[in-house]
Amino acid sequence: MVMTPSMPPFTPPSQRPAWRSLTALAGSVPHLRELLKDPQRHQFQASAAGLTLDYTHQAVDTRILQQLCVLAEDSQLMPQAQAMFRGEPINLTEQRPALHVALRGSHLPQAPWGDDISQQVRVELTRFTAFADQVRAGGQRGFSHTPITDIVNLGIGGSDLGPRLAVDALAPWAALQTRNQVRVHFVSNLDAWNLHATLSSLNPSTTAFIVQSKSFTTPETLMLAASARHWLLAGGCPADQLSRHLIAVTARADLAQAAGYAADHTFHLWDWVGGRYSLWSAIGLPLAISLGGKAFEALLHGARAMDEHFLSAPTAHNLPVLMALLGLWNINFMGSPTHLVAPYAMSLARLPPYLQQLEMESNGKRTHIDGSTVDCQTAPVVWGGLGIEGQHAYFQLLHQGRHRVPVDFIGVRHDPTPTAWAPEQHRVVVDNLVAQRLALAQGRDSTRTHQLLRAQGMDESTVTRMVPHRTYPGNTPSSLLWLDEMTPHHLGALIALYEHKVFCQAALWGICAFDQWGVELGKTLLNSAKLPHSG
Ligand code: F6P
Questions:
Q1: Which residues contact 24 (CB under 8 A, 6 or more apart)?
Q2: Active site residue 523
């Protein structure tokens, strides 16, 4: 295994002195209701790029935070981050760089091919954003020479989750800030009804398909693309006009060309962009069509602002590092193998499934970078959903179950909905977020519950019977991420924040975040099936 020049000699994380200190500290952490009494608790916040991380409700105190920061320093997080930004082959098993940061212009100039990468990125960004603006202006016409009005994205995993999250999250912004006439749809699932239901309301003469596949070998996507061709032909599209309705985004332009995609309808990404890190590339074309090219670049600027914060902020004020360390504390020292992501903003409904791929495909690993087997937990099981609905469902388990489930609450301070009732609704959403976070931390003990039930007029024998069922242990930790508003800039910063958090946790655990041999297995299993020869 070739280690990159900037990677320190490998030390298993559990061998680090700070790891041992943290193990000792984990045995005597006060209950959150005690920690929250600290008048200085408000200091446990940090802000960057329009986001604020409030970790006052995490089960840490200054001693623990200090040791976590020592662990970060001892693990040489920043030298490893700089190696990533310099384009070193930190994707060790595939011997590739992981240079998604270059897509937003953040890579460090020392990269030997620095200028070439910047040039390649700029050319492709210009190409696909110009194409997006042309589609938006009605400039892309189908076989009947009428403008394309509907775009269907065919892709799966990183070729679907990132663009779909972003298009959904920014749909309100797009509706209020742009004049977009082109509708964007997503089909990722091979279940035939998915494509049928999407296409049944569309017109073949005004519909185009973006076939998103970095490898251009993913069976599900190629099969969906073949079905789309059938639908176009059945809808009256002459075979020699198909290319008007088919767009490819891939790192394998040779395969796209062989499958009949026109060169001016083929957009490129590179093997140094991981699928789950590819939103910033031409994989973001559906978003560029939904928002416009200029707004897409605002997304890149937001991510770049987070990159600059990540590379420059001191450990104790560094949002990605803090989130990584708090996650590690909960997983490795406080016995919490799962992690709940609970946005209190409808626009972020698709953030949990996006983060499931980002976090669990990156860090769902059991082998250290030196080939040895890990002796600690790595990625948590990430799950989640809209908090305002979860509190009427699975929050029961959080309040009275046996699992200790750390929560990322995510709130958006400003709601742009242009209706008279929006401000009041938004206030209630935010009040629910704050109330749930506090209740999960403080709980309600038997003494307080007894008093409450008696005050409600319940007789003593009933109260005695009911108290065990009506107490809440509390002590469930959470972070609260505030976005000032949901704009391309803020979404870019949020996604980059989680990308760097995942990177930091991989560096702390000593695992590779950028390969995915486990999911590659799925593809080989499927290859034995009979598949169409082209997409
Ligand atoms: O099978 C896993 C995976 O390779 C993901 O890493 C990737 O995002 C997805 O499949 C789609 O791959 P492609 O973009 O090559 O079609």
A1: none
A2: yes
Distance in angstroms (rounded) separating the CA atoms of residues 268 and 247: 11
Is the Cβ–Cβ distance between 315 and 73 less than 8 Å?
yes
List residues near ligand 1 (CB under 6 A).
Answer: 156-159, 213-215, 218, 221, 275-276, 361, 516, 519, 522-523
Strand, coil or helix: 79: helix
CA distances, 197 to each of 185, 192, 260, 482 (Å): 11, 9, 26, 36
Q: Is residue 152 within a helix (H) or strand (E), and if so which, with residue range? A: strand 150-154
Q: Which of 37, 42, 392, 469 is catalytic?
A: 392
Q: Whose CA is nearest to atom 4 of ligand 1?
A: 520
The closest alpha carbon to 88, from 2, 11, 158, 10, belongs to 2
Q: What is the pLDDT of residues 460-486, one digit of tens each?
A: 999 999 999 999 999 999 999 999 999
Residue 1 has pLDDT above 50, yes or no: no
**Alpha-carbon gap, residue 418 to 525, rounded angstroms:** 50
Instruction: Please say if 34 is a catalytic residue.
Output: no
d(CA 295, CA 311): 25
* Cα–Cα distance for residue pair 308/48, rounded to 1 Å: 10
Give the pLDDT confidence of 497-528 residue by residue, as tens digits.
Answer: 999 999 999 999 999 999 999 998 877 776 66
Ligand 1, pocket-test mutation among 154, 156, 210, most atoms within 8 A of CB: 156
Q: Which atom of ligand 1 is nearest to the CA of 218?
A: 16
Helix, strand, coil proportions of the chain in percent (round to 5)? Answer: 55, 10, 35
> Going from the N-terminus, what domains does the chain have, and what CATH number goes with each?
31-90+313-418+434-516 (3.40.50.10490), 104-297 (3.40.50.10490)
Residue whose CA lies nearest to ligand 1 atom number 8 = 158
220, 255, 519, 527: residue to mutate for ligand 1 pocket, most atoms within 8 A of CB: 519
Q: What is the pLDDT of residues 57-75, one digit of tens each?
A: 999 999 999 999 999 999 9
In the DSSP assignment, the letter for residue 107 is S
Q: Which of 91, 93, 215, 252 to mutate to test the pocket of ligand 1 (most atoms within 8 A of CB)?
A: 215
Q: What angle do CA 80, 116, 132 make, to 5 degrees?
A: 100
CA dist 512 and 66 (Å) reads 26
Give the nearest ligand 1 atom to 155 CA. 16
Across 294-394, where does the E strand assignment appear?
338-343, 381-384
